[in-house]
Amino acid sequence: MKVLHVETGLHLYGGAQQVAFLLRGLADRGVQNLLVCPPGAAIGQHFAGSAVKVLEVPCSGDADLGFLFRLRRVLHEQRPDVVHLHSRRGADVLGALAARLAGLPVVLSRRVDNPESRAWVGLKYRLHDRVIAISQGIADVLAAEGVPAMKLRVVRSSLDPKPWQQPEPRAVFLAEFGLPTDVVTIGVVAQLIERKGHRILFDALRALPDRAGLRVICFGQGPLAETLRREATDLGDIVRFAGFRKDLARWVGALDLLVHPALMEGLGISLLQASAAGVPIIACRAGGMPEAVADGVSGLLVEPGDVAGLASALRALIGDPALRTRLGTQGRARIEREFSVENMVDGNLAVYRELVPSP
């Protein structure tokens, strides 16, 4: 079987990392993989010189109608058995149109739970033969908006836990980020954008009666970087901004706690990473987060936007090291049991086989 994958993201963020896991797993199962990505994209560089054939095709976004014709030309040249679209930007509609024009079955992975109008849903998803939701939460949103059940499949995102289970020693971690030895360290791993909820966390910190022994490290970059820095100044040196780190696996396991106050989230790869590292989590009951974090098992869940609830959860975990240890240990076991790369690869391959007749 030959599968052409389209990933238009420039960086190796969560979604692109899932594509990388998938392509490696499919190759191990004898699938021939072609990867369409923009010139200079991190995922293209990741697979340079590998068995994956990388085809660089410029794509500047949803309004780039030329991408439709450039991709159609590639499809006619390569003649894959199925086209798998992994990105929203420029690919979910234009990529599907290109596949339809080429007469090829098309699969879309849906990684976010952003709402769409029923009218748009009725037009857009008509283009796709199958829609793979990376969580049941996303599938529920799509079904409620009118995507037919016969098209919907749920294949959870996955994680290779090994890199996350070998963090740097605590002393090295503290030195790297200039932290004192006697603090509880809280991590936030998310783009600096509105829906990730950084402001809600800052408000919850302000509600704590004693925060002198805390340090919060915000990993990530985004358009709100300077705004959030300014808004956190009244918290003093409690909040640090570490930017985007390619070596995140070295540091997450040294945290005492990970907080993800997102207002919406398809699943949350950073939550899986933290659990793999044995770090307890506070997240929200929104999107796929309740699937990534089992309440009372691997972490605590609060309502999205609930400052008081988040402050209460923070107090509970900050003040109870034994509870943090128990949740972290249980979270690690759950990742290995329920979020394996093998399960994710097999799930996607099963969807392809629904569309491609056996020889």
From TrEMBL:
GO terms for molecular function: glycosyltransferase activity. Residues 14-155 form the Glycosyltransferase subfamily 4-like N-terminal domain. InterPro entries: Glyco_trans_4-like_N (IPR028098). The keyword Transmembrane does not apply. It holds the Pfam family Glyco_trans_4_4. It comes from the Bacteria. This is Glycosyltransferase involved in cell wall biosynthesis. It comes from Panacagrimonas perspica. The lineage of its organism: Bacteria, Pseudomonadati, Pseudomonadota, Gammaproteobacteria, Nevskiales.
